[in-house]
Design brief:
- The protein has 235 residues and is mostly helical.
- The protein has eight helices and two strands.
- It has a two-stranded antiparallel sheet.
- The termini are far apart.
Length: 235
């Protein structure tokens, strides 16, 4: 079954997939290459896995995500549009929001599987909580927003939309420092595939998926980001 994004004009497959490829390239280069590959390794080599190192890594991701946000705004403005057309601010059904909150809590709990105290509140934590909102926003408007909008508008099936976006995110989340972790790719494919499914089948509003994604940073950092540095050290 195919679906089109609400109130959005159709696109040719060539135009839509060109946008998808360009967005994926930006995500892989900026978040994958600059942040996960170079940034995480550089920070680990100089500051180890300390909380201060985790905060610096968070700032590196913040810079990368600001680039991603700028890219999405640029692509939208080329069409005379904004992020509202991608589902930002679109009404969300309460059952979908509840599902997203439950999923966000489950995802957050995974952040502490490597250790860490969810009740600890070092001075770095509130800064990282605020940064986490930006990180979640950037990935959601780029992936669940722009990419899924383009795929829907060229008549791509819902299942393929979910698989493509999950795969795009799995690739760059599986690069940790100078190592490639297939296990991280698989887990990321599942985690972000579920987010895409919530978006696609939940009315294509970015509100639920942003809530779920933001929760894991807001409640899971610094343990979540510190896990990346532990991954670098184990590579």
């Amino acid at each position: 079954m195919s679906t089109s994004s609400p109130q959005r004009p159709p696109l040719t497959k060539a135009a839509a997939w060109r946008e998808v490829g360009l967005t994926a390239a930006i995500l892989w280069l900026v978040l994958g290459g600059a942040c996960f590959f170079l940034g995480a390794q550089w920070i680990h080599d100089r500051w180890g896995k300390s909380l201060n190192a985790t905060l610096i890594l968070d700032v590196v991701f913040l810079i990368g995500c600001l680039v991603v946000i700028g890219f999405v705004l640029w692509r939208q403005r080329r069409q005379g549009e904004g992020i509202a057309e991608l589902g930002w601010g679109r009404p969300a059904r309460m059952p979908v929001v509840i599902i997203a909150v439950v999923y966000g809590l489950a995802w957050t709990s995974m952040s502490y599987m490597r250790g860490g105290d969810p009740l600890a509140f070092p001075w770095q934590r509130p800064i990282m909580m605020a940064i986490g909102l930006v990180l979640a926003f950037a990935e959601e408007i780029a992936v669940r927003g722009l990419i899924l909008d383009r795929l829907a508008r060229c008549g791509t099936s819902r299942l393929l939309q979910i698989v493509v976006t999950a795969a795009i995110m799995a690739v760059y989340h599986g690069v940790v420092g100078h190592s490639i972790w297939p296990s991280y790719m698989v887990s990321s494919f599942v985690i972000f595939g579920i987010l895409s499914a919530i978006y696609v089948y939940g009315g294509r509003s970015l509100t639920p998926v942003f809530i779920a994604h933001a929760m894991t940073h807001f409640l899971g950092d610094p343990a979540l980001m510190q896990g990346i540095l532990y991954g670098v050290g184990a590579g």
